[in-house]
Amino acid sequence: MNVIKKLRIVLNSRQKHRVALLCVLIPFSALLETLSVTVILPLISAVVSPDTILGNKKVVSILSALGIEDPDHGTFVRILLLVTMGVFVFKNVYLFFLTIVQSRFISNARCFTSIRLMGDYLNKPYEYYLNADVNMMLQTVNKDIPHIFELLQEFMLLITEFAVSACICVV
Known about the structure:
- Helices cover 88% and strands 0% of the residues.
- α2 packs antiparallel against α6 (73-122), α2 (13-38) runs parallel beside α8 (134-170) and α6 packs antiparallel against α8.
- The radius of gyration is 25 Å and the shape is rod-shaped.
- The two termini are 30 Å apart.
- The longest helix has 50 residues, at 73-122.
- The protein is mainly alpha-helical.
């Protein structure tokens, strides 16, 4: 909790809104990950025992809604392969987009915070530097700020993995 309080101080309101947006995008990625895992089982079932799948009333009603009456085994497997490929392509494109958004946010926030902190240091009066530890100031700008945002990035990754695990456990 101490880290979250510090991040609330370090981040400005625009960056906090971006974090909120990322917190909305991350659970959707977890749902897509779960969907991509669960779509494999019907495909395997259709290949191993097509009569069982084609005899299911829900499957028959979905196929008839799509305009496919009395499909054979090969057609059904091809449909499932296309659906599986579509789910995986969509999931990977979305995860690529999410990774770009997260990386851009972390990079921009780190740069903005470093510039803001360096500007605060440069605007201090000369008397401040007579007794100040300049090495500590440089370490804060060059090492501590990047570590804070690496921690934030790892925290986002942890939230993503936790959400995926929770969705898989529910399914």
